[in-house]
Amino acid sequence: MLRFMPVGDSMTIGSAGEHTWRYRMWRHLCETYGGPFALVGPRETLYDKAAEAPDSYAYAEPGFPRGHLAGWGEGWLHMAPLIGGAVRECRADVLLVSLGLIDLGFYTNAEQTAQNVRAFVAAAREANPRVRVVVLPVIPNVRCTSDAPFAEQVAAFNELLAKAVADLDEPRSPLLLATPPVSYDIHTDTYDGTHPNESGEHKIAQAFAEAMYQGWGLGADYEG
């Protein structure tokens, strides 16, 4: 069985009543992956914005497997110390990672964030030397439209992320850099300029799915 672990921030954990891109990816794999698989992770909750706590189980699709390693307001800085234990505990084979916005917005600059990417990969590989990782760069968000220094940091980090993925890629434990959806529009693919709505969820899932299909022949083209 191939075990996928979604790793991310608020765009990955989602909030009460949402499907999330994790659900869209699960549906895609159900339809295209030819063998047994699971979504795994040490956490299962969505984020309850009303309670400001990750304690809601109000998934829009009750049958959806809930495992993940995602948190509202968490980034590479927070996940690097956790990923080794999570990979080991859940026996993860493939990590689908969407992080960086929180780091750059509140905690670390582009260079420091890139260092945490490398620490994250090292810890994941220590737990599973054959782990595969797909990483999504920071995608468009509303803050980039009004905060030029932040937008510059996002661009700088995405360049450093691409370099880190190229540097760290190896046959035994391959890394892929997903291509951000070209058509992703914060006005039509998010509900608040940052968090994906239904169309945004599909586009994020598509970015991961197409990276795995093109890079590893896993699954198929994303139909949405």
Per-chain topology:
Layout: E1 2-8, H1 10-13, H2 20-32, E2 37-39, E3 46-48, E4 53-56, E5 69-70, H3 76-90, E6 94-98, H4 101-107, H5 110-127, E7 132-136, H6 143-146, H7 148-168, E8 175-177, H8 198-216
Parallel strand pairs: 1-2, 1-5, 1-6, 6-7, 7-8
Antiparallel strand pairs: 3-4
Structural commentary:
The chain has 224 residues and is α/β, with parallel strands linked by helices. The protein has a single domain (2-216), classed as SGNH hydrolase (Rossmann fold, 3-Layer(aba) Sandwich), CATH 3.40.50. The protein is 45% helix and 14% strand. It contains eight helices and eight strands. The chain has helices at residues 10-13, 20-32, 76-90, 101-107, 110-127, 143-146, 148-168, 198-216, and strands at 2-8, 37-39, 46-48, 53-56, 69-70, 94-98, 132-136, 175-177. The strands form two sheets. Strands 1, 2, 5, 6, 7 and 8 form a six-stranded parallel beta sheet that branches. A two-stranded antiparallel sheet has the order 3-4. Strand 3 (46-48) and strand 4 (53-56) form a beta hairpin. Helix 5 runs parallel beside helix 7. The longest helix is centred in the C-terminal third of the chain and has 21 residues, at 148-168.
